[in-house]
Amino acid sequence: MQLKQIFVNGGRLKDTIEAFADFGRTENNGVTRLSLSEQDVEVRSYFSACCEELGMSVKIDDMGTMYATLEGTEAGPPVVIGSHLDTVKKGGRFDGVLGVIAGLEVVRTLVDHGIKPRLPVTVMNFTNEEGARFEPSMMASGVLSGKFDRAEMLKKKDPEGTTFAEALEASGYAGEAANRLKEATAYLELHIEQGPVLEKENLSIGLVDCVVGMACYEIEVTGESDHAGTTPMAMRKDALFAATDLMTELRRKLGILDSELVFTMGRMNVLPNIHTVIPNKVIFTVEARHKNMDIVHTVEEILNGLPEELLGCTLSKTKLWGRDTVWFDPAICALVEQAASKLGYSSKKMASGAGHDAQFVAGFLPAAMIFVPSVNGKSHCEEELTSYEECEQGVNVVLETVLGIIAKE
């Protein structure tokens, strides 16, 4: 079956992005829409109404994840397009929601052109992807994929002490486990890059082939506190001096491993944190990310090879957590690449340094991701911006990929 080339309605897409942003819009044109909050419940109802207008059926699973389905002419595993509607506090108008809107616009475009898909097309809204209200992030997709235990997730509390189970029940979006996604012909997730690469290289589309692996360690340096004015420098056991020497050496060693390795020392506690007292303890984190797990393992070897003593201080290290690189389905990635090429959009293969629901979905279903540029690489802030034209191009790639899938007999 050969389907004609069609495109989404760019004006409608822009209006839809702004309509969704009205649910939790901030004074500086960002969005605060925490999972299962009043604003999240309202946007869910709006999304559901939009889908029902198109003749889609809407179901909810036991984690509150929404599935809106346009039936196909044949029964079979659906083509799924998904992401999330929740945001961080004072987040942007595009992160997460663009992937849900992409699915909605794909279905709208099919309906506009009278195209009845051969396979069902399902648009998903995952619950609590951000983890901004209930930790951990990607909670619902983690339960769906078997990475997280549902009973444990239901016990998670927000800063006010409300459990996820209580919030889910109060939201009216507590559904049935029987509605969980179990199979799919493909899962597609459109997302803003949240980084500066596409914009810097003047490219329209990121062909995401993986979510990078990572490792996070905590380093603890223990010295002795003494008076800052009376203790000679040669007689000190200054934990902060030792820690900064370690950081400098780690930056040198990790910096020459590979140009694509990113590493961050993002948290640091200095004790007793008094300007007249020599620090007796410093605790800091080292997190590293790379798609090649051999590189990640080399980072771990360097961290585990740190000396046990430095400048009279003792050192210890603990691995907090890590993950292996998740590779997306090569066949689905190839279809996405073909779609971008057919549409004449500039693109490049790239890895995602951030986590997404797609990485969990990829563990049991054929999945792929598509990136569109982020202005100045900004995300998780009110300044987050992707041009409407670039959003439109990303949704057109999703549409063309879906058409390629449903056209196959």
Please give a structural write-up.
The mean pLDDT is 97. α1 crosses α3, α3 packs across α12 and α10 packs across α12. This protein is α+β, with helices and mostly antiparallel strands and 409 residues long. The strands form two sheets. Strands 1, 2, 3, 4, 5, 6, 13, 14 and 15 form a nine-stranded mixed beta sheet that branches. Strands 7, 8, 9, 10, 11 and 12 form a six-stranded antiparallel beta sheet that branches. The termini are close together. Helices cover 33% and strands 22% of the residues. α3 links the parallel β3 and β4.
So how many helices? 12
> Low-confidence segments, ≥5 residues, pLDDT <50?
none
Order of helices and strands: HHEEEHEHHHEHEEHEEEHEEEHEHEH
| Rg result | 24 Å
The major sheet is characterized as: 9 strands, mixed
Q: In angstroms, what separates the terminal alpha carbons?
A: 7 Å
Helix content: 25-40%
Number of strands: 15
Shape descriptor:
elongated
Query: Mean pLDDT, as a whole number?
Result: 97
From the helix content, strand content and strand pairing, which structural class follows? alpha+beta
Beta-strand level of the residues, as a percent range? 15-25%
Secondary-structure blueprint:
Layout: H1 10-21, H2 38-53, E1 57-60, E2 66-70, E3 79-84, H3 97-112, E4 121-126, H4 139-144, H5 150-154, H6 164-171, E5 186-192, H7 197-200, E6 205-211, E7 213-222, H8 239-255, E8 262-264, E9 268-271, E10 281-290, H9 293-304, E11 309-310, E12 313-323, E13 326-327, H10 330-342, E14 347-352, H11 357-361, E15 367-372, H12 388-406
Parallel strand pairs: 3-4, 3-5, 5-15, 6-14
Antiparallel strand pairs: 1-2, 2-4, 6-13, 6-15, 7-10, 7-12, 8-10, 9-10, 11-12
